[in-house]
Amino acid sequence: MPSVPAIIGDFSVLPVTVPPLPSFPKNVVHYLYVRRNNPKIPTATDARSLFLTNVPVDSTEVHLRALFASLVGAGRFESATFEDERKDAHSQSHSPIDVAHPAHVARPQQAHSKKRKREDEEVERARGEEAATRLPSTWTRPLRRSGSTAVVLLADEKSVEQVLKAIAKTHKTKKYPTWGDDNLPQGKVSPLGSVWLKAHNRLSYPDRQRLQASVDAFSALFARREQEAAEIAKRLRNEPDEDGFVTVTRGGRAAPASRTEAEEAKRKMLEKQEKKKEELTNFYRFQLRERKKAEQAELLKKFEDDRRKLEALRVKRGKFVPES
Fold first, then answer.
1. Among 67, 51, 126, which Cα is nearest to 93's?
2. Which residues contact 199 (CB under 8 A, 6 or more apart)?
3. For this chain's UniProt record, which GO biological process terms are given (predicted)?
């Protein structure tokens, strides 16, 4: 087997032995590329995390835990986040909380806590409704995209150093860690192969009652959101914009709007409300500024009038000739 460099760029090369399988009865060495995690947007855990690329397609957190335990021992590995999981987490966002009006800042703390509790309950209720609309999964275990990445979180910064040193040591000793389900605890990871495909075939035909419940939940949630969007759009149609015009959308002012139009209308309405809040906040400051400008203009006008009167007196005085 040709020698592989221990370091390529910023990455340390970690060779992993893949044992033979019935479908491919040969020993294979798979190469993972490991470096310190340095994302574009820094986080508090970057110093004790590692970035992995070219992870095997059957990777799970249990696989990586066993791999790092074989390198530096147990207790160093905390968690792993794969590429598809990071994208899903990034797409989820919480709705921002509206800033309280200055007149309501002095409300009791208990009212704030109750409002926050209600908001949390609404968020949890919305998540539960969305979870009920999802169709049952047809796979018992996901497979990663070829060449995908993962971020491994370790116990501390010292563990990161130990892992990188252990990777360098594997190139000297030629004793590579082994990858595969044979080294994992029984029951931790669902099997692949024919068992995995048979389970997929069975799950592709879910229970009729469970499937009907998911469809009913989705239909109810979709209808409610459509109704809310139509009400927002209808209310916005009757409100003039900052220039005094009323927006007429497709189908006339009385016809229901599409969901896209309603979301756009909601965004404009929220922007308008924020602008009104800002105008109310700066109202008295604007009034004071305008009054000062008027006073300055009045003083300048009086100054110019006095200057013209003095100039007229000087001219009249120059033309005066006393009698001899």
1. 126
2. 139, 140, 190
3. ribosomal small subunit assembly; rRNA processing
Residue 105: which H helix or E strand, with range? none
pLDDT at 97 exceeding the cut of 60: no
Please report where in the chains the tokens 């029951």 appear, as a residue: 187
Tell me the pLDDT tens digit for each residue of 236-282.
Answer: 666 666 666 665 655 544 444 556 666 777 788 788 878 777 666 55
Round to whole Å and give the CA distance between 159 and 74: 11
Residue with tokens 């609309």: 133
Dihedral, 76, 88, 121, 231 alpha carbons, nearest 10:
170
> Can you tell me the distance from the alpha carbon of 299 to that of 297, in angstroms, rounded to the nearest whole number?
5
CA distance 12 to 198: 38
Tell me phi and psi for residue 232, to 5 degrees.
-65, -45
DSSP 106: T
- Residue 288 DSSP one-character state: H
Task: For residue 144, give the nearest of 192, 83, 66, 187 by alpha carbon.
Answer: 83
SS3 37: coil
CB neighbours (10 Å) of residue 60?
20
Cα distance between residue 159 and residue 153, in whole Å: 10
Q: What local confidence, expressed as pLDDT, does residue 109 receive?
A: 43
Q: Compute φ and ψ for 49, nearest 5 degrees.
A: -130, 155
- The pLDDT assigned to 323 comes to 62
For 109-168, how does the pLDDT look when each residue is reduced to its tens digit (9 = 90+)?
444 455 667 777 777 888 888 888 888 888 888 889 888 999 999 999 999 999 999 999
